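Recall that a protein's primary structure is simply its ordered list of amino acids. Everything else, from secondary elements to tertiary packing, is in principle encoded there. The following example makes that idea concrete.
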Amino acid sequence: MRRIAKHIVRRGLWHGLAAALACSPAMAQHEAEHQHPPRAIAGAKTQGSHVEVDGARIWYASIGHGAPVVLLHGGMASSRSWDGQVPALVAAGYRVILIDSRGHGRSTLGPHPLRYELLADDVRAVLAHLHLVRPIVIGWSDGGIVALMLAMRGNARPCAVYAFGANMDKASVRPGADDAPILATIVPRLAADYAALAPDPNGFGRLAEATRAMQAAQQDIGPAQLATIRTAVTIAGAEDDEFILPAHFRALAGAIPSARLELFPTGGHFVPWKMPDRFNRSLLTFLAHAPCGRRREALQR
């Protein structure tokens, strides 16, 4: 998620929290269940595979059948973030592709510093491994940034992109975002998920530092670059996003010729967790209107 890494590193929260949760899977599960409402288990318990990419092992899983939909999670999170969306998408007839970003969840960090370009390359490698051509990509926060980057360049551009809570320049960050009260409940959930999934359950602090460095080094992407996107795009966000100024979502939608804007009045940066039914309706509407939302030709065999 967007500003969490800086908050964790600056305040040193992970030194005690991540270590304590990592020592006890039962405690990690307890914390995850009690910080937020119960979550669906489809994504959390899915058995996946790995692709070797540039020194890292990138975890992915495929669930269901139909037109492929790739889900990209936010910073410090994992594919488990989508547990509230996977069952709805599969029930609607889509094949869901989950990916744990490099260094997150069940994927290893590898020898290179985290960069958004590197995360995009990892996604391309997974898509090539699965022989997926122009799938639909849904991204949340940092995952939304990666989704829009995929739409900007390369041969494996998505058929359509839904980017929720993404920011493409540093000026869009809300003042005081590093001290947002929501972090007091989000950080334990992320630490618990990491401890339950990661190859090195004690590496949460290292991930926080790597993510913070990636976000600090983010290159601003301006209107001229965004205007090169020809993919069908939905820019989504919440009016009360704790980290990103809502004016930025409007600016993104205005800069991308093919984009439509959807703003949730409440729910903040965590609408998919707080209001999964409402968020899922938005996703399913987007998918129903995507140009390849029902085309099996999107899967190249």
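The first strand starts at residue 49 and ends at 53. The radius of gyration is 17 Å.
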